[in-house]
Write a structure and sequence with these properties.
globular, Rossmann fold, 421 residues, two-stranded parallel sheet, alpha/beta, eight-stranded mixed sheet, 12 strands, single chain, 38% helix
């Protein structure tokens, strides 16, 4: 089981305690591997146009590093008890988007056999036009002419990172409104480039990639993704909205469709507060919509199965400075799929993510589901319902909690809404 960490395409590490693979490996008899790989400017600066054949594929170097790791695993994992003929790739948030790219990359295709994309639907990636503009901005900031691009090689890393931060803006800027394009399509900044070489086409647009049509897939998201981003951004007002405040935000964020979206969400969530509607709609725009698009397009291939999920286990702790619960926030699932749920709670805070027995049960269930999928291509766990594959009729979705359950086409009215605009 080969995991790619989150953090968008500019931050993160394989060393996070929440994604330590020891419990997952020990309890489920699997081998867990994680990679560090180039990020930001060092991983995704597009030089193909100005540097020539030697730098072909430069706009995808970060994910090509992971492909190189997969090749190493294929050649060496047997020495660690692993099976090179049964490799699963998975990742959360930015790691999910990286997994989306790997799923569509011929360079990686021979070295993995199934995948899971978690809160990181990578449907479209950066086009060469936008990548070329970003490269021009980098060179301008550094005072380097295009013909002198080799000066980049001797530039101090601190200076490169200064430019990276300036051009990327805040770490999550622009990432919360991916919708049907997913979270990888950047107008500026650093992300994998659809260069026709390393990444021949957008991973899941207009269809699921042919290169992985025979490889089973899990795809899903967390019910309350936005609470994490609102907390990190210090946006306390989002969690105490009046009806007028909700309308004001939606007009700004969805100027053409806000009324239609608001009507559907109010009808589908009777009794929900303004902030609950806002969190739901922002969470959908971040990863819910894109995850559904990937599930639909994979199912439409009528080949290997795709399994859809929504992570529903809710944190009882509130967003600092508010009375709004964090809920099933972005990134919470990491500790559960690795069954590191004890690491989520500070010492003595047994209710940090709910009652301890429920937390432990949810962690055992999710980690076992992922491990069984890695072994067999069908996710499942003891004492949990069977997980049916997703199709365009039933749209079966596993809702992951202490006691999981299968729902057919959850939030159907909202799904139809986003498909129509």
């Amino acid at each position: 089981m080969v995991y790619s960490h989150g953090g968008g395409f500019t931050t993160g590490s394989a060393a996070s305690v929440l994604q330590d693979g020891a419990n997952l490996a020990r309890q489920n008899d699997v081998v867990v591997v994680q990679t560090n790989h180039r990020l930001g400017l060092l991983g995704f600066l597009y030089l193909d146009d100005i540097a020539g054949p030697e730098y072909q594929g430069s706009g995808c170097n970060g994910v090509r590093d992971i492909a190189a790791a997969l090749r190493w695993i294929s050649n060496n994992i047997g020495a660690f008890g692993g099976d090179p003929g049964n490799v699963m790739i998975f990742g959360e948030s930015g790691g999910g988007a990286k997994t989306s790219c790997l799923y569509a990359m011929p360079e990686a295709a021979p070295y993995f056999h199934k995948a899971s994309i978690e809160s990181g639907p990578g449907i479209r990636m950066t086009r060469t036009q936008e990548a070329h503009e970003t490269t021009a901005q980098v060179l301008s900031e550094l005072g380097i002419a295009a013909l002198d691009w080799r000066r980049l090689i001797d530039m101090p890393v601190a200076e490169l990172l200064r430019v990276q931060v300036k051009l990327s803006g805040m770490p999550n800027s622009g990432a919360l409104a991916g919708g049907r394009n997913g979270i990888g399509a950047a107008r500026r900044g650093f992300a994998p480039v659809v260069d026709g070489y390393a990444l021949p086409a957008h991973p899941f647009d207009p269809a699921a990639p042919e290169t992985s049509r025979a490889k089973p897939l899990i795809v899903g998201y967390n019910r309350d993704e936005f609470t994490f981003f609102g907390m990190v951004a210090g946006d306390r007002d989002a969690f105490a909205l009046s009806d007028a405040g909700l309308v004001e935000r939606m007009k700004r964020e969805l100027p053409d469709d806000w009324a239609k979206v608001l009507d559907v969400y109010r009808a589908s969530r009777p009794g929900a507060s303004a902030s609950q509607i806002y969190v739901a709609y922002r969470s959908a725009r971040f990863s819910g919509i894109g995850s559904t698009v990937i599930a639909e397009r994979k199912a439409a291939q009528h080949d290997a199965p795709v399994f859809a999920y929504r992570f529903d286990y809710a944190l009882e702790r509130t967003v600092p400075g508010t009375s709004y619960p964090l809920g099933a926030m972005h990134a919470l699932d990491i500790a559960f799929k690795f069954n590191n749920v004890e690491s989520v709670a500070p010492t003595g805070a047994s209710n940090f993510v709910g009652h301890r027995p429920e937390r432990m049960r949810a962690g055992r269930a999710m980690s076992a589901m992922w491990a069984r999928f890695a072994r067999t291509g069908v996710p499942g766990a003891v004492d949990q319902p069977a997980w049916p594959s997703y199709d365009l009729y039933r749209r079966a979705t596993m809702l992951i909690d202490a006691q999981c359950r299968v729902a057919e086409d959850p939030d159907a009215a909202e799904r139809r809404l986003w498909a129509s605009i």
